[in-house]
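Sample pair:
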Amino acid sequence: MESITQILILLVIVSSCMAATLNTLNGQKKEKRSGRFCPPMGYKEKYEVAFLDNAQPLYGCAYLDHDWNLSDVPLFHLWLERPEEQSIIPTYCKNTSNMNHYIFECLSNDESANPEEVEKGFQYMSLFEYKPNKYGQHGSNTNEPSFRCAVYVADEYKNYGVVVIRMALSRGKAEHFTVRQCEGLSNILEDRNLIYDPKSQQYWPEGASYVFVMGDLQPKRRTTTTTTTTTTSTTTTTTQKPPVSFLYFLSMIRGELA
């Protein structure tokens, strides 16, 4: 009788663990489908981009959007100028015809295990890149160096009406993601300036890059309910973004970034 009781208790514990695991997986699946594993960007909203690796900055555009041929979750789209076809004046999202298109699926999003990095707001992501074939069509090929780590921090500047997301990307790795790809990336975010400096970049992890993303703050919705009627009204408040260029804006807030 005692052994039967022990078996029943064990079954209850196992069932509870399985249920908790299933709930966790379902929650993660919902978060992934909502795009919450990606950087905090509005769905289909266009963001200006500046990109820095081992050469002069490149400019482009970024947004979250679906590509149902690739995945059922929102994907992180990144467009960057071709180095040989850079514009004298960056076009950002106004014209992406002469840009390379990169597509990433955000696989996970977690806080750092380092309390100091948590205090700074650093978030870690694992990414899978859909590589283009010779016809320019994107697809999944794990034999390509498609898995990356990214560390980012998002800062809201309500007086300017913008959000600035600074992101450090690792080089790609084939077959699977490893945590070791994240090593040293957070050090890149300590430098808040967008300057091509080979001397400092020699200390970056091999193949790493630095991405600045800037866009409008998403409008805040405020719901008000009156006691005399049963109707509920929703008010949307927005802050106008100043008519300045991306780089000029970064120079304006450099003191705030320091």
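The helical segments are 2-33, 115-120, 185-189, 198-201, 246-252, 254-257.
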